[in-house]
Amino acid sequence: MEQVVYGDVYLAINFTMDWLALYLTAKAVKQPVRPLRISLAAALGAIYALASLFLPDGNALSTFTALAFPFLLILVAFSRQGGRRELFRTLAAFWAISFLLGGAATAVSYLVARWAEKEAVIGGQVETLPADLPFWGLILLALTVGAVVSLLLRGRKKLPSTVTVEVGEDANSLVALDGLVDSGNLLTEPLSGHSVILVDRSAATFLPAELAFLRDGSTPALTPRLRLIPYSTAAGEVILYGYLPRIVQINGKPRAACVAVAPLPEGERRADAIVPTSLY
Fold this sequence. Notes:
The chain has six helices and eleven strands. The chain has helices spanning about 5-30, 35-50, 60-80, 85-115, 135-155, 215, and strands at about 120, 125, 160-170, 175-180, 195-200, 225-235, 235-245, 245-250, 255, 260, 275. Strands 6-7-10-5-11-4-3-8-9 form a nine-stranded mixed beta sheet, with no helix packed on it. The termini are far apart. The model is unreliable at about 120-130 (pLDDT under 50).
């Protein structure tokens, strides 16, 4: 028995659900919300969902495509500004929120269908999505589920605005810094993938001898411990210089992190360092 699918409705439903999932993912991982990028990613997701109806199902290629396509959506919606670690963290959040949205929408749709006694029977099976639930009802359902998930995300424990950062080469030479937690710091060191702590030059008294030039801003010298970190600003692309300290602690807890030394922006010089939320 054939099932009739209205392409425009199918596209609209998938676009709405993907947009909600990407928006809630941005809120969950504290990524900046870019409506145009999210809309483009959601449109790609909707087109893929429609195209998948015409592709062979159950083979290795279709399974791989279904698992890999979310990577493309995340890259389009958020780019790779945070590096591999942030990419996989965002992808995991997207998967979890998508499952939650899909499961909640299916459950509510089934309850509505049972209440209205309008289940759609196709191929001898009872479908959980009612055939004649109006499109505006599906949109309202998606928005309701999204609002509930958004409220749940707001209920998470809030991060502190300041932390104590300790940096040094050994336990006896740790230097304590006042760190400002900033969700906008998504920098990562390309080789290790570690998140980057920005430290003002005036506070970088912990630097080992071979990296002392980072504090006075002199010409960088080639040393195995030097790291180059790409940094995007409104003025264009720049390179920050940093290194991987042997010990980094955030509020007394060990962390794997890279430290970049540079003058902090005027508005953030009340702290010694800018710490990404991923390290807390």
